[in-house]
From TrEMBL:
GO terms for cellular component: nucleus. Transmembrane segments: none annotated. Residues 48-187 form the Cyclin-D1-binding protein 1-like N-terminal domain. This is CCDB1 protein. Pfam families: GCIP_N.
Amino acid sequence: CEVGAGAARGLGRARPPLRRLRSLSAVTEGEPGEGREPFELPRFWDALGQTVKVTSQEATKLSLAFSRPPVASAEDCQKLSEDVQNAVLAVAAVYYWLPKGQGTTLRKMVRDATTEVVEGMIQLTETILSAPLESLSPEQLISTGGVWEACEQVSSLPRDNQAAVASALAACLGVVKDALEEMEHAVVEGQDPYSDIMEDEELGFRGNRDTYWSEADRKLLSSCMGLMKASKAC
């Protein structure tokens, strides 16, 4: 009990610095500016890779510091909080290097990835603040892993706007392909077009008219399939 009480007091002292990390959610708000120095894309990616690596390491240090008693001292917690904050701010600062001229699709992907890192760190902080300091909880493990994963995903981002656009189109093409396959399967099988819809409690049974494709349904489906095929070809 005495150990538990000491841990609780220690965590109480540690809470104020950790709570300040919640304000990091605003660091990715706004638009990147045009720098005065010539922009170098390879240098940008090197810097972003280094900053997310440091952020991942800081997440590990923060999680380990609050994985078991005794809790970190107020001074150590202050240092941990500052290191985490500096790491996240560094990631955001590198994101703001990326000028508009590099392409909106690339910027959006980098922004989304940066936001995932920031939000992951905030989630880890919230988990630590809300969990009793007894052992490394599953929630804390998941939150820590979430930061690691968000940082690792940065390395798989497209390296220029052309690659970013191609990646976005590939994702859309996958959705179109799946939709087209489902439509073709439904037509060939002649299955109930509303089989995945539950019966309404008030309206009751749908009746036979809704368990097959009507002529109007087939004409509309044919037009939709043509549109899907045209989209796929593009």
